[in-house]
Design a protein that fits this description.
- By secondary structure, the protein is α+β, with helices and mostly antiparallel strands.
- Helices cover 17% and strands 41% of the residues.
- It has 3 helices and 10 strands.
- It has helices at 42-47, 103-108, 134-147, and strands spanning 7-8, 15-20, 23-30, 37-39, 52-61, 68-81, 84-92, 99-101, 111-114, 119-122.
- The radius of gyration is 19 Å and the shape is globular.
């Protein structure tokens, strides 16, 4: 169960304390409707991270119908949130939080948001491997078939 690894969040079930590049004091917005991780423009500057430019700007679709933003760059940030450590790729966009953690990260680490009381928990904790992707699972099944070939036909 996630109870043994859950911690109360600061203000609500959507916000969590996060360490970026080993530095505490940042906040992450947990957005289960977001398919990527996003950081505010001040994060790569303050942490002196390398910023990578897209050849062609990406469109960031927002929750309000018809709302869109352009993303021109991304960076890689080592994060630690609730005992889970990983270097994530963050698109850089004007957001109100330091980092937005999307459902991709939450699924990979089996994240759970509990309400009343507000808790954010991860079933995968530091030192454990994240759940394999579907592609990795298919590859594993495919290679296991070749390791154990079918017995020869008998007459």
């Amino acid at each position: 169960t996630p109870c043994e690894h859950s911690f109360p969040t600061r203000r609500s079930s959507d916000l969590a304390d996060i360490a970026l590049c080993g530095r505490e004091g940042y906040s992450a917005f947990i957005d289960t409707g977001c398919t990527q991780e996003i950081c505010a423009p001040h994060i790569p500057r303050s942490l002196r991270l390398m910023v990578h430019k897209y050849k062609k700007a990406k469109t960031l679709k927002l929750g309000t119908k018809g709302s869109r933003a352009r993303v021109n760059a991304y960076c890689f940030i080592p994060v630690k949130i609730k005992g889970v450590s990983e270097t994530i790729r963050c698109d850089i966009a004007n957001v109100s939080y330091d980092v937005v953690i999307g459902r991709t990260f939450m699924r990979r680490h089996r994240g759970v948001i509990e309400l009343e009381p507000d808790h954010l928990a991860f079933r995968d904790i530091e030192g454990s491997a994240p759940r394999p992707t579907k592609r990795a699972q298919r590859k594993q099944v495919h290679t296991s078939v070749w390791r154990h070939p079918a017995p020869p036909f008998s007459d």
